[in-house]
Amino acid sequence: MTRTKKSELVMSLVTSWLVAAALRRWYMRWGTTREEELGSLPGDEFAKRISSTRAITIHAPIEEVWRWLVQIGQDRAGFYSYDFLERLVLADIHNADVIVPAWQRLNTGDTVRLASKRVFGDGPLLRVLASEPNRFIVLDRWGAFILHRIDDYTTRMIFRTHSRQRSALRTFADFIFFEPLHFVMERKMMIGIKERAESLRRSAPSSRPEDERAAARSGQARRG
């Protein structure tokens, strides 16, 4: 290989690494503010290392968002992500589009199943390290799912992924494969919760004071 070819190869590798690093910076903090990325959150006490923090705004009451979040699990409502991809790896996940009363409790010490028991046994069981209704769920080997009330009709949802110290080889593998894949699936999960909570909110009768006043004025106009 000539010196010119070697220089071109080095430049290509450096450029590729810089692009990958820039993309990683974006998807590891997708949707967050600087304060959310760097601030302390429920569940941090269980984390040896923070891997990523992602956030999304949902135009629905916090109680409504919680009802979708709390029922996650392979044998429950699924994870609202790309379940057809999850089924390709025999996880047997099917996303729900309804609220199921039997799935509305998730207490500390309970478990959340990631994949089929028939195929994977109890390996994919994640223990609930902490849970507070309408506020957060912390899962061992995953991280924290946190809800913040912005106002009565708006919720900020933050996912913070925890990780352990790993070897250089495992860190490189995460950088190349696991982290981008996890982002794709987790982003879809967040959007899936947002779409379901907002859809139910839109289909429900309006209860905003301003909407009630508008309805009253409309009724008065019709009577007049």
DSSP strand count: 6
Q: Percent range for helical residues? A: 40-55%
Question: How do the helices and strands follow one another from N- to C-terminus?
Answer: HHEHHEHEEEEHH
Query: What fraction of the residues are assigned to beta strands by DSSP?
Result: 15-25%
Give the averaged pLDDT, no decimals.
Answer: 85
Low-confidence runs: 205-224
CATH topology: Alpha-D-Glucose-1,6-Bisphosphate, Chain A, domain 4
From the coordinates shown, what is the CATH architecture?
2-Layer Sandwich
Distance between the termini: 89 Å
In the CATH hierarchy, what is the superfamily? START domain
Number of helices: 7
Query: Which structural class matches the secondary elements?
Result: alpha+beta
Radius of gyration: 22 Å
Spatial shape? globular
Give the key terms.
single chain; 224 residues; alpha+beta; Alpha-D-Glucose-1,6-Bisphosphate, Chain A, domain 4; six-stranded antiparallel sheet; 7 helices; 6 strands; 44% helix; globular
Walk me through the structure:
By secondary structure, the chain is α+β, with helices and mostly antiparallel strands. It has one domain (27-205): START domain (Alpha-D-Glucose-1,6-Bisphosphate, Chain A, domain 4). It is 44% helix and 20% strand. The chain has 7 helices and 6 strands. The protein has helices spanning 3-27, 34-38, 62-69, 83-88, 117-120, 168-203, 209-223, and strands at residues 49-58, 111-113, 125-132, 136-139, 143-151, 154-163. Strands 1-6-5-4-3-2 form a 6-stranded antiparallel sheet, with helices on one face. Strand 3 (125-132) and strand 4 (136-139) form a beta hairpin. The longest helix is centred in the last third of the chain and has 36 residues, at 168-203. The radius of gyration is 22 Å and the shape is globular.
